[in-house]
Write a structure and sequence with these properties.
There is one protein chain. With about 140 residues, this protein is α+β, with helices and mostly antiparallel strands. The chain has one domain: CBS-domain (Roll). The protein is built from five helices and five strands. The chain has a three-stranded mixed sheet. Strands 4-5 form a two-stranded antiparallel sheet. Strand 1, helix 1 and strand 2 form a beta-alpha-beta unit. About 25% of the residues are buried.
């Protein structure tokens, strides 16, 4: 396996994002439309937090709704803002971080996605799925 490969070679650069002023209904819609589980929360391109589908499940009965169903009961979502539900204490990595280093971070933490930033600016996202696809490509 290659040693010092940067995450920039496998990260997602066309990132689905939420603006800090967006609501949770929009978040639910984006999760389902794009079949993703993590959405960075930004103001412009500055990252402020990360919202996971699990975060939504914690405050709602979203798991009782079919993943293919476009209709969502938004009653619970109207009680919270994106900022209240998102993770704020982020661990981020740079595009130059090696894939091995990123894998070590993810294996030692309880999350499954890392924002890839240059300073405070979001330039990509690396997920455990990206890592698995990379590992598969090595065989």
């Amino acid at each position: 396996m290659k040693q010092r490969v940067p995450v920039s070679t496998i990260m997602t650069t066309n990132v689905v994002k939420l603006n800090i002023t967006d609501d949770l209904t929009k978040a639910e819609s984006l999760f389902k439309k794009h079949h993703i589980r993590h959405i960075p929360v930004v103001s412009g391109n500055k990252i402020l937090g990360m919202l996971s589908y699990t975060d939504l499940l914690r405050i709602s009965f979203a798991d009782a709704v079919d993943d293919n169903d476009e209709v969502v009961d938004t009653t619970v979502y109207n009680m919270f803002t994106v900022e209240q539900v998102m993770a704020k204490n982020l661990v981020s990595i740079s595009p130059e971080t090696t894939i091995k280093e990123a894998a070590e971070v993810l294996s030692n933490k309880e999350f499954h996605a890392l924002p890839v930033c240059e300073g405070n600016l979001l330039v990509g996202i690396l997920t455990t799925t990206d890592l698995i696809k990379y590992l598969i490509s090595q065989y």
